[in-house]
Design brief:
This protein has seven helices and twelve strands. Helix 4 (about 130-140) links the parallel strand 7 and strand 8 (about 145-150). It folds into two domains: about 1-55, no CATH class; about 60-240, Rossmann fold, CATH 3.40.50. The protein is an alpha/beta fold. About 35% of the residues lie in helices and about 30% in strands.
Length: about 240
Amino acid sequence: MVCFVVRKDLSRQLLPLAEMLRRKFSAISSIVMNVNPDKTNVILGDNWKVLSGEAQISDTMCGNTIQISPPSFYQINTVQAEKLYAKALEYAAPEPDDILADLYCGAGTIGLSMAKNVKSVIGIEIVPEAVENAKENAMKNNILNADFYCGDAGRIFSHLRSKGCAPDIIVVDPPRKGCSVDTLDTIIAAAPKKIVMISCNPATAARDAKYLSLNGYSPDKVTGVDLFPRTGHVECVVLMSRDKA
């Protein structure tokens, strides 16, 4: 999938380029345009248009077929992403009766990769298109024990907790800015036995791990996983366990 991000609708100018790319590179099956006129640090706007090919693409991740729309977050280095998620599963070490909450779940890749190891999965994501993808992906892979909700991770999770949701394991995969304090406070109040944090920014992961360590959790293990070789970026997985004392 190729996505052009522009300040104004440039369909007429981009259509010839889109057709040329499709002819030259057979692997490209989708070319879309995103219009974002706002001068902020937010990359994507709300206006999408398909210039050529399909509106969505699909990939295989951890044995599941994953449908991906342009606004959905997805790890593009599939080989390393599967190692990343395998390490997260190893740290989570779920039991068959566990309830797992997947916050910032995107298209559901992490939660769905762990679904067969737990009683149920609850996924929360703020991007509506990603939530629709997650629901489609659960159905497509015949995963019947996963439910997905759209909205702010902290707010939706707090609401679910008020309805009796009590996860044993919480997995978080936040954006580079990390988890909000409200989300961390909600996680702490839920008192899961384990928190598995996946982060593309070790600095904010360390900040959030420190906050959790001051509120009843100990950082037991951490592993770095390199998804972008020859760059300064590295993903990390952190296991936080609830203190017994």
